[in-house]
Task: structure prediction
Amino acid sequence: MKAVVVGSGAGGAVAARELAINGFEVIILEAGNPFSPLTHRVSWLSSLRGSWLLKDENSIKRVFPHYGITRASQDLVILRGVTEGGCTSISCGNMVRAENGLKEIGLDLSVEFEEIEKTLTIVPIPREKWRPLTQQMYDNAKELGYAPKPTPKVDDLSKCVGCGYCEVGCISGAKWDSRRVYKDYIGKGISILTNTPVQRVLLNGNRACGVLVSNDKSTEKIDADIVVLSAGGIGTAQILRASDLPAKNNLWVDVVLTVGGISKGSRMLNEPPMTWFIKRENYILSPYFDLLSYWFHKPWKDVSVDDRVGMMIKLADSEQGSVEADGTVSKMLTPADNESLDKAKAEAKQIMETSGVEGPFVDGMIHGGHLGGTVPLTKDDVETMHPSWLPKNLWVADLSLMPHSQGLPEMLTTSALSLRVAKKIAEEKGKQRKL
Ligand SMILES: Cc1cc2nc3c(=O)[nH]c(=O)nc-3n(C[C@H](O)[C@H](O)[C@H](O)COP(=O)(O)OP(=O)(O)OC[C@H]3O[C@@H](n4cnc5c(N)ncnc54)[C@H](O)[C@@H]3O)c2cc1C
Result:
């Protein structure tokens, strides 16, 4: 039985592997190219800051083509990895369970979380690898009553050189990404085509019979017995709309805003990002050298790499946003989002100030890169893990299924959701695991 999986990020990788284990012949169709980290251009990029070459967020793609950049409104830029491995290839390696709203729809993913966690090494970065200022901010945050915790990371720490460039790819091979999930199955049940964007799902009555793909060179039909959309919160919604199928206007993105301050010689880029975090009700705070703001955001341009300090806010935003068939995304921050950001900014500033970080404190680029909510699961669909309004053999296995924003890292939750979906597909088709 032939399964097409669209996308090779957190969701697609897990779905492809599980389906292959269950005897499906799987073909992964990935819009992006094979991933390679940014290397030689890193140092000279600094000298171009503020120039027309690195003028704004649109320059990001010029420097690092694996990023997909979309402006969703005046307030908000959307980032994603359009490459093999999807957003996992440009992640910070943080790995936590994010379960906000799952209980309400009756979805318990404990079994899948455990199954995935067992295959990975998830450990925090030891304190001695944090920069002195990061240690100081941790201690002060603790004293202020914020209960910071070291961040669990999915890394091979023996290989991590602490370069701070996780989000433009890991050069040492320390960081996990979803390509590792299926690599042992390539040629043994799984094949992958990169640079192969899916335009739409092909329907025969009320069944999906394949997909239409096209790149610069050609357009072709690929037949399938089942189609699994794992193109992420935006990609999956775009394909559905282009196929005249509905997606919901519930896009959430986990809004990120990094408050920048100054501490001479702190060299915050010489450590892994987000070594610890504070969990507040609907956001986290975490020390973070915001590379993209440092390179591309004008208000950050006058402070050197050695002196810039950042405290990230990652907010669980309102689930209000839409994706069109042509990829246009519309999403604004709501008054409630802005209120939470203001509260979080005051806390970030307080922790930095008590640690000797000086102003001016300047907001970084507001962006979101955890994309979900466009095919949200409801209580009625949890048993089958199949959104009832889609054709029977068309499935979704990515973060689109998550009804609510988490304000937390999402790779583990996406993987767990996708594993459950793939198990349901196999169950429905009467397939058995061949381990
Ligand atoms: C900069 C950044 C850092 C992050 N850091 C972390 C972190 O440290 N920890 C964490 O847990 N989470 C992190 N995340 C979030 C996390 O990586 C994502 O939430 C998660 O990977 C979502 O998985 P997904 O399968 O839904 O989508 P993705 O991983 O985005 O995968 C979607 C895939 O589909 C492909 N695609 C899209 N459209 C098409 C199409 N039409 N045809 C074919 N293929 C298509 C894309 O190229 C991509 O490969 C980060 C995100 C970003 C942007």
Remarks:
- The first helix runs from residue 10 to 21.
- The CA atoms of residues 151 and 276 lie 5 Å apart.
